[in-house]
Structure formats: structure tokens, C-alpha cells
Design brief:
single chain; 250 residues; alpha/beta
């Protein structure tokens, strides 16, 4: 298969790229960090690397077209940024960046492959969201709101793309022990509920894509937890989540 991974220079995106490449697929990734991209290129000659800002649709489309030559089996969007700052301390630069990369980046991904996949009458688009996008409460972070919107956007596109045999999978993981999470957690992720390794998350994600699942929430323990707490009154839910996030320390 030909597979393009947006935001594939770190975390689950890079893990997926390496796994797919090891299975004999033709894989390309894109990202913005030149140093990371250079290291990936040097140590993984079976992965094609592009420097692309996902906020630039034409730049993204150009990279995808160059790699695919009009034939792409799967595109995965795993690009996203997160800050620990809540709205009270969030800078406008941080807020705009999260909206542009987390949300506009997904829209650009759909639009960048739309014409090609429509013409080929086939394709698969997978988008990595977050468990945070399932938690609807008044003090939800900007990050959570972008992830919530992504889920809705994917469902809307699916309604129109299914007529062209294009599958859309929404991947909603809980905590994954990426370098970013470790950094935000001061290298201690033990206090996070049901943390998965990158390898575990990669296995589940690939299986869901192979089975063409429309949506998957994992791990199961987190799915069950979310299904329970989202039934709570909003005031109680807000209290619990703010306490868990140590709101006052942000």
C-alpha cells in the first residue's frame, strides 16, 4: 500500500510510519521540525520525508501528490499540538496554533486528497483525535474543543465521501506514553489513567484501520470510564475533571 502520514515525525504518527514501512508498505511522512525529519530520513531509508506545514493546504497537497503520483491507499492525520495552559493563561498564539494545526490541519487533509480519491473511487482516511474530545463540560480546554470538533468533522465528511468508496476512521485514544506526554508529565506518566505504550497504541490503530472501523475508542478501560463519567451532571463532571487536571496550578 501507499501510505502518507501527516504529522508523522513523532509520537504515534512516527510509530505507525515505522510499523507500516516494516511491513513492506510504501510510506511517507510530513512534519515541520527539520532536525527530527533529518534524523528520521537518516535512520529510515524506507520512509520518504517531506517538510510541510499542515496549515498550508497547497503545500500539503503538493507533498501528497509528489509521493502518491495519483494513487494513495491510506492517509493518516496524526498532527496535533497541546499545551498544559488553560484558557486563563493561554496566549492567543497558543490558541490559534491549536485551532490551526489540530482542526484546520484535518480539514486540509481531507481537501488535499479529495479530488484524487474521488477520481480513483477508493481510499481510506484515518484521523487521530483524543479521548479529550469526548468530554463536554464548561471548562474544557481549547485542545479538547478542537478534538471534539474533529470528531464531528470526520462524521460529516464520511457522509459525503462514502459514495466514492472512501472509508473514514476516527481513532480516539486515551493516554499514550509518547515523548510529549512524558515531557508534560515531568517524565512520570504513572498518575495518568490507563496509559498505553506507543507499540500498544500502534497495534490497536492498525487493526482498526485494517477492519475499516468508523470509530474506535481505546483502551477499553478508558472507553468504559468515559461512558460512565459523561453521564454525570455537568457541575460534578467539571469538578472531577478540574481536580484531575490541577486547574489551580495551570
Amino acid at each position: 500500500m501507499k501510505i502518507f502520514i501527516v504529522g508523522g515525525s513523532s509520537g504515534i504518527g512516527l510509530s505507525l510510519a515505522k510499523r507500516y514501512a516494516s511491513l513492506g508498505n510504501r510510506v511517507a511522512i510530513c512534519g515541520t521540525n527539520e532536525e527530527k525529519l533529518k534524523k528520521i530520513k537518516e535512520s529510515n531509508n524506507n520512509i520518504k520525508v517531506y517538510k510541510v506545514d499542515v496549515r498550508n493546504k497547497e503545500e500539503l497537497k503538493s507533498a501528497i501528490d509528489d509521493f502518491s503520483k495519483g494513487n494513495l491507499d491510506l492517509i493518516i492525520n496524526s498532527a496535533g499540538i497541546y499545551t498544559n495552559n488553560r484558557t486563563a493563561k493561554l496566549t492567543d498564539k497558543e490558541a490559534y496554533a491549536m485551532i490551526d494545526i489540530n482542526l484546520t490541519g484535518v480539514l486540509n487533509t481531507f481537501e488535499a486528497v479529495r479530488d484524487m480519491m474521488f477520481k480513483n473511487n477508493r481510499g481510506h482516511i484515518a484521523v487521530i483525535s483524543s479521548i479529550a474530545g469526548l468530554l463536554d463540560y464548561p471548562k474544557a480546554s481549547v485542545y479538547a474543543r478542537t478534538k471534539m470538533t474533529i470528531i464531528g468533522v470526520c462524521e460529516t465528511y464520511r457522509a459525503f465521501f462514502r459514495d466514492y468508496n472512501i472509508n473514514i476512521s476516527i481513532i480516539i485514544p486515551g493516554y499514550i506514553a509518547t515523548d510529549k506526554l512524558k515531557s508534560l508529565s515531568e517524565e512520570d506518566v504513572s498518575k495518568k489513567p490507563t496509559v498505553l505504550s506507543e507499540e500498544e497504541a500502534t497495534n490497536i490503530t492498525i487493526k482498526a484501520i485494517e477492519e475499516k472501523k468508523e470509530k474506535i475508542i481505546y483502551p477499553l478501560s478508558m472507553k468504559i470510564l468515559i461512558s460512565i463519567i459523561t453521564k454525570l451532571p455537568k457541575r460534578l463532571l467539571t469538578y472531577i475533571l478540574m481536580k484531575q487536571a490541577n486547574w489551580g496550578k495551570k
